[in-house]
Amino acid sequence: MSNPTTISGVLDAKGLKIAILATRFNDFIVDRLTGGALDYLERHGLDAKNITIVRIPGAFEMPLVCQKLATSGKYDGIVALGAVIRGATPHFDYVCSEASKGIAQVMLQSKTPIGFGLLTCDSIEQAIERAGSKGGNKGVEAAAAMLETIRVLEQL
Predict the structure, then answer these.
(1) From the candidates 71, 91, 94, 101, which is the catalytic residue?
(2) Would residue 48 count as lying in a domain?
(3) 66 has a pLDDT exceeding 90
(4) Where does (2S)-2-hydroxy-3-oxobutyl phosphate bind (predicted)?
(5) Residues 107, 69: Cα–Cα separation, whole Å
(6) Domains in the chain: how many in total?
(7) Which of 18, 102, 105, 155 is 20 to 30 A off residue 117, Cα-Cα?
């Protein structure tokens, strides 16, 4: 029996141009996600001059701005970072659902890898855990997923 062909992404960011989309809403959490993503990308060879950080109001605006970034032709990938924390109304459910669906739709239509780093948490404590505490840093994970996807797509 012969060995199957395996395609996997090398975690090397050299030569790429990346946009980091970061919401201002809940910025005390999002700033930690952004810091994690920046650190990860730079440690994997991305020159800081090839990173553009775009700040926007909140999660609901993420799909539109991702679309503009993806269709600009300027970026190899996008890291989308935000934090929505559940409140007392159903607003949380609508924002999270529409932002998630919209970002996925942009990625599929534009064929641009987007690292999904939108935290959808029930409490501030959960958000803190996922922004560099005991739950790791989801900004790092979103950057890693985007980078690996870029490198896999290059081989397909």
Answers:
(1) 91
(2) yes
(3) yes
(4) 88-89, 130
(5) 11
(6) 1
(7) 155
